[in-house]
Design goal:
580 residues, single chain, 23 strands, Beta-lactamase, elongated, Penicillin-binding protein 2a (Domain 2)
Amino acid sequence: MRSSSFERPRRGRIALLALVLITSLGVVAARLYSIQIIQHRDLGIRANGQYERLIPVTAKRGTIFDRHGRVLAISLDGASVFVHPGLVQDPRATASRLAKVLKIPAGAIRAKLKSDRPFVWVERKVDPDRAEGVSELDLPGVGLVPEGKRYYPKKTTAAHLIGFVGVDNRGLEGVELQYDSLLTGGPRSFLSSRVDALRRVVFREAEDSPAVSDLYLTVDEVIQHVAERKLEEAVRRSEARSGTVIVMDPLTGEILALANTPSYDPNEYGSFPLASRRNRALTDPYEPGSAFKTVLAAAALDEGVVRPADLFYGEDGIIEVAGTKIRDHKRHGWMTFRDVVAYSSNVGAIKVGMKVGKTRFYNYITSFGFGVPTGVDLPGENRGVIRQPPDWSGLSLSALSIGHEISTTPIQLLTAVSAVANGGHLVRPHVLKAVRHPDGSVEEIQPFLIREVISPETAQTLTSIFTEVVARGTGREAAVPGFPVAGKTGTAQKLDRQTGGYSPTKVIASFVGYVPANNPRLAILVVIDEPRGRAWGGTVAAPVFREIAQEVLSYLAIPPVVPLEERVARRPDEASSRVN
């Protein structure tokens, strides 16, 4: 009986112990199931985060070519130095050894090694020699990652058009910014880094690099070089403040060259002042002066309020409007409308403007694209300023007739004149010619017609008149032997910010035209800001047009059309005159 009594408590304790063991095993099994099955993914990520890092790297950008496949911007293989501060065993010694190889102050490196962040860049995109030197140091916590480095092999050539990228390889200006998404192909890629048993950083594998596109621009490297060289010579010769040249195909709106001086090297853009990096062709509005008489003449002829042979009296060079006397650069008596344009008479232009009237003139100004962006595919375009007729003063119509009280950009003015050259159609200017996508397919960019601004007949008459500007008027220095040239000079006084009036000495001299006039292949605008000496559009800017046109026509193998003298002699007879 005693034995039986003793066995019952013993069996109870064994059963209790077994129950406790089974329960404990169940808890452990449940915990293991939770860790290994339910929380496996999250805990794995947390564990990886303790010894693995995703390092953002800049993939190679797409290549930028000119219209003939010449390389303007390309990405080269490069490397960047980084550090995991928590893995560095001797910060002072590490900083000292890195400083000797990287040629940067040791103190700057030590400051980065003290960071509480898990990942810090030490130096981005170092040259191959320095990268190899860092690799040979084999320092704990220090690593190298491959990063594409943007390179502009032609240096300053087309700098304002191409633009540049920042240290992260993202576009900051020009085409690089405008088409950044195509050139980068999407989000940046990441490289996985791990730490081995010796606390050295090793790499596992990178995510797939984004697919990038290559761009072909409308610009021609040869034409660009000619434009830049001739512009620099003119600015230096005239001791001017700055200058701009744009060369465009007036039929398609393709920009063949865009040059500004002063310029800069996009490989070292940080070493140049902001003024040198500004794309003045798009960003700097100015009063165009007599070059704007192009729009006035178009409005007057298209509305039928004047005919080429109509007569206007030049008032001996002075006209008074709203109590203000406006002068010509020389005295004129009776002039035909052709003469008014050819000799750029302010008095004659004001009388023509009065015949056109406020509303009609304003409608043509806006139809030609002034006061709104052209839509050119480059960043930073200024829209210019043109007030509406209700806001005009008694002097505004006269001022606008001679190119004042309006601000325009070089790209706006050349686009407007190109509409005359191509028969009356406003075409959107553009710099992208084609895109080569990652799959190898090529997408051609088609010209974009905005609207018709004048009739073909008006455009033809205007071209005839503008050839006389060059043949016998203020633009004679723009004449190109063997080719008929149509164009218009402009000399505009600049506003003096101190006096609030127009400066007697500071002007903007310009010439805008197209060649050959009877079958235009090139539309060219030259703007010279604050030239000294004989600072007229016809003496400062027109010769630059001639020099650029001569070289480019030869380069394009365009044969001469007809001697200039013969073209003038064959001018058709005029219709009967009217006295105004």
